[in-house]
Amino acid sequence: MSEEMKNPAQQPEEQPAEETKAETGAAPEENAEQEPKKHGKEKKKDLAAELEAAKAQAQAAETALNAAKDQLLRTAAEYENFRKRSAREQDAAFNNGVGFAVSQILAILDTLDMAANAPTTDENYKKGVLMTLDKAAAAFKVLKVEEIPALGLPFDPEVHSAVMQQPAAEGQESGTVVQVFQKGYKLGDKVVRHATVVVAE
């Protein structure tokens, strides 16, 4: 008899070894399958963290942009206020200068007015005086200097200065300006000289 037939029980003993070997060989395959899954989860976590960081940076950038816009608007508003204030100050300085200059020549115009109203036989002289007054009036118009209306109007202490009162004539109302002793002038809302007047009682 052959040795295989003599020891029939020896062959089954080798099979468990093969099964163990097969089982042992299956473990690395399972680990190999689990390894990519593990890396995939970690990669997702990293991407999520990067996304959150990007969102935070975007939020910070938006906040900084809004702050810059607010600062720009405030700066623009401050500049506009400064420009308007400077323009008002320049206008006021100009008007003050014009008002002072006009006040210095009003006495000359008063003299020319008296000369124009004085009786004379020299027509050329009177014509020259009237031409001078016309040129002065044209210059005042350019400078926006206006004569203050007075005669026949109600007395206004803001622009009129009463030196005397007289009984109201028939048809005149009390408080009406009935005579102008000296013309008044104003530059815009600024009174350069009050009109000197007589008022009806």
What this model shows, in words?
By secondary structure, this protein is α+β, with helices and mostly antiparallel strands. The protein has a domain at 145-201: Nucleotide Exchange Factor Grpe, Chain A, domain 2, CATH 2.30.22.10. It is 66% helix and 14% strand. It has 3 helices and 6 strands. It has helices spanning 3-6, 10-117, 123-142, and strands spanning 145-147, 160-166, 177-182, 185-187, 190-193, 195-200. The strands form 2 sheets. Strands 1-4-5 form a 3-stranded antiparallel sheet. The model has no long low-confidence stretch (mean pLDDT 84).
Low-confidence stretches: none
User: Can you give the mean pLDDT?
Assistant: 84
Estimated helix fraction? 55-70%
- Distance, first to last CA: 169 Å
Percent of sequence in beta strands: 5-15%
Total strands: the figure is 6
Order of helices and strands: HHHEEEEEE
Q: What integer value in Å does the Rg equal?
A: 54 Å
**Helix/sheet category:** alpha+beta
Tell me the CATH architecture of the domain at 145-201: Roll
CATH first level of the domain at 145-201: which class? Mainly Beta
- In the sheet with the most strands, the strands line up as 1-4-5
CATH fold topology of the domain at 145-201: Nucleotide Exchange Factor Grpe, Chain A, domain 2
* Count of helical regions: 3
Q: Can you lay out the helices and strands and say which pair or pack?
A:
Elements: H1 3-6, H2 10-117, H3 123-142, E1 145-147, E2 160-166, E3 177-182, E4 185-187, E5 190-193, E6 195-200
Parallel strand pairs: 2-6
Antiparallel strand pairs: 1-4, 3-6, 4-5
Helix pairs in contact: 2-3
